[in-house]
Amino acid sequence: MRVSLKDVAERAGVSIKTVSNVVNDYRHVTPAMRARVQLAIDELGYRPNLTARHLRKGRTGIIALAVPELGNPYFAELAGAVIDAAAEHDVTVLLDHTRGEREQEILVSQGFRARVIDGLILSPLELEAEDLRGRDDDVPLVLLGEREYDLPYDHIAIDNVAAARTAVRHLIGRGRTRIAYLGERTDAANRPAHLRLAGWRAQLAEAGLPAPDALVGPTGGWDRGDGAEAMARMLDSGMRPDAVFAYNDLVAIGAMRVLHERGLRVPWDVAVVGFDDVAEGRFGAVTLTTISPDKQAIARLAVESLLRRLERPEEHPGRELTAAYRLIERESTLGRR
User: Which of 89, 85, 87, 91 is CA-nearest to residue 61?
Assistant: First the structure.
C-alpha cells in the first residue's frame, strides 16, 4: 500500500503542509520538527512522488550529459560522477554520445531533445563559437572541457595550462631534460585550445630547456593506439626523449607499450606522465604518474550550475568555474619503491 503525506502527518502529529515542507526541503522548518517528520517518514517507508514534484515546477526532472566518447574511461568516470551529483537533487541524467563530431555536437546543442530534458551539460571537441552564438534554444547549457568559447554559457574546467606545467615541472625535478609532448592533434578541424601543449612549452621555456618540433608527437586521436603510433614515429625519427608528457592517460599507456617493445625501461630510460587519472593507469605493470582532475567537483559544479540556471534564469550566465587538480606520483616517474 502506498504511503501518503497524510499518513506521515498523522504518524508525526503535524499538518500535511509541515510534512510537505520537510519533504521539499524548505528552509523554514525547525531542526526538531524536521527530525520528527523524518522519523515518521523512515518508520512508514514514505517515498515522495518525484514525477509529480517535477511537473508542478514545469520540468521533466531529466538533464542530458553529452560527451565525445563513452568508451573513454575518463568520460565514463565523469558520467558516473555527474549521475551521482544529479541524484542528490532527485534529477535523472540522460547520456548522449557525440563521437566528437561537429555535426552531432551542433545537433545536441541546438536542443533536439528540448521537450525531454530540462538542461544540457556538453563536453565538445569540434564545436565552434559561432555554432553556439546563434543558438536559439532556451534549454540551459553548461560547457565542460578544455575549449574556451567566451560565450554566455557557464564553463567548467581545470586550469589546463597550470596542470601541464605541474606535470612538466615534476619531470624536470626528476632530472629530465628532453621532455616530449604527445597529443597535438593532426586534424586542424578538431583542435581544442591545446592548453596542455601551451603549458608544456611554457614550463620548458622557464627552465631554459629546448622545445623543438621534433619533441612534439602529433596524433590523430587521443587513444592508446594514437599514443603508440606517435611514440614509434618519434623514436623512428631518431629523437630519443628521456621523458614524455602525454595529453591523456590513454596516449601515455600506448606510448609506454612502444617503449617496452623497443627495450626502453620506464622510468629509468624514459619517464612518463599522463593526464586524467583513469583506473587503467593505476593497475598496469608500471603504474602511471598522472594529473588527476577532481571529477567529482567538475560534476558537482556542472549539475549545480545547470540547476542554478533553471531556478534563476534572469541571472547572466557565462561564468568560468575552475575545479582543482593534483599530481599523483607513481612508478612511471619514480620507479618501484
Answer: 91
**Identity of residue 119:** G
| pLDDT tens column, 270-287 | 999 999 999 999 999 999
Order of strands across the sheet with 141-144? 92-97, 62-67, 119-122, 141-144, 154-157, 320-322
Copy the grid coordinates of residue 78: 565523469
Per residue in 36-64, pLDDT (tens digit) is 888 888 888 877 654 445 444 556 789 99
**Residues 3-29: b if buried by 16+ CB within 10 A, e if exposed:** eebebbbebbebeeebbebbbeeeeeb
Question: CA 201 from chain center: how many Å?
Answer: 24
Question: What pTM was estimated for this model as a whole?
Answer: 0.80
Distances from the Cα of 61 to the Cαs of 107, 126, 309, 337, in angstroms?
22, 29, 14, 50
* DSSP secondary structure, 52-81, as one string: HHHHHTT--SEEEEEES-TTSHHHHHHHHH
